[in-house]
Specification:
The structure is a single chain. By secondary structure, the protein is α/β, with parallel strands linked by helices. The protein contains eight helices and six strands; from the N terminus they run βαβααβαβαααββα. Strands 2-1-3-4 form a four-stranded parallel beta sheet, sandwiched between helices. α1 runs parallel beside α2, α2 packs across α7 and α5 crosses α7. The longest helix is centred in the last third of the chain and has 22 residues. It is globular and about 40 Å long.
């Protein structure tokens, strides 16, 4: 399962999510779980904001070698799942490529649907989306320019939403699917994983 994370500048929120996903994949022995990130107004070529890099490290990830990239349609095309940091960004992504909307969510939205419904596939998340319409905002605020504490809060928020979602959607096997709203060749089922609390504790001790 290839996940694309999207924010504005691609030096804070989306890179935190990308690198935590890679750490999660390595920690849970999930070589088929990959991730990248991009920004709609990316600071192309810039490394992560220093406080974002510190946040990534504090949660067990590695920001080494990262450079910000601008979001392009081909990135959306190759992603099995697109997770945006805000509703506005989600809607922008949905306009970039034909048929991408069923696999595009905010991170908070996808987490909520999976938690409430027990969805084990991206197609199931999409099917439940309209039945679980949420009256409110499901955005992760941009911490750029704020305090170190604000970055840690955002990092913790991303981790708390992301890790359970990845546990639910961990790639198990690929089987051809049918249906207009399903992506061919993708079936996602849960893989054994340690409890979230244990995983977070392990990352904090590193």
């Amino acid at each position: 399962m290839h996940v694309l994370f999207v924010c504005n500048s691609n030096v804070c929120r989306s890179v935190i999510a990308e690198r935590l996903t890679l750490a999660f994949a390595a920690d849970n022995d999930l070589p088929g779980l990959t991730a990248e990130s991009a920004g709609t107004r990316a600071l192309v070529g810039f490394p992560p904001e220093p406080l974002a890099a510190e946040t990534i490290a504090s949660l067990g990830g590695d920001a080494t070698g990262f450079k910000a990239r601008k979001l392009k349609p081909e990135m959306v095309d190759r992603a099995d799942l697109v997770l945006a940091m805000t509703e506005s960004l989600r809607d922008q992504v949905a306009e970039l490529a034909f048929g991408v909307a069923p696999r595009t969510f905010t991170l908070a939205e996808a987490h909520r649907i999976a938690k409430v419904t027990g969805a084990k596939s991206i197609a199931a998340l999409h099917r439940a989306r309209n039945d679980l319409a949420y009256v409110g905002r499901e955005n992760i605020a941009d911490p750029i320019g704020l305090s170190p504490g604000a970055f840690l809060e955002v990092g913790d928020q991303i981790a708390e939403l992301l890790f359970p979602l990845l546990q639910a959607l961990a790639p198990h096997e690929q089987t051809e699917l049918t249906g207009d709203d399903e992506r061919p060749g993708l079936v996602i089922e849960p893989a054994p994983a340690r409890p979230l609390s244990a995983f977070l504790a392990a990352q904090r001790r590193r």
